[in-house]
Amino acid sequence: MNNHFKFLFFSLLIFISGCTATTEYDYGYVPSQDKTESVQDGIYHKVKPGDSIWRIAETYNVSVDEVVESNKIPDVAKIETNQLVFIPGAVIEKEFVSSTPQEEEFYWPVTGRVI
Question: Which candidate, 1, 8, 71, 78, has a CA 20 to 30 Å from the CA of 19?
Answer without folding.
Answer: 1
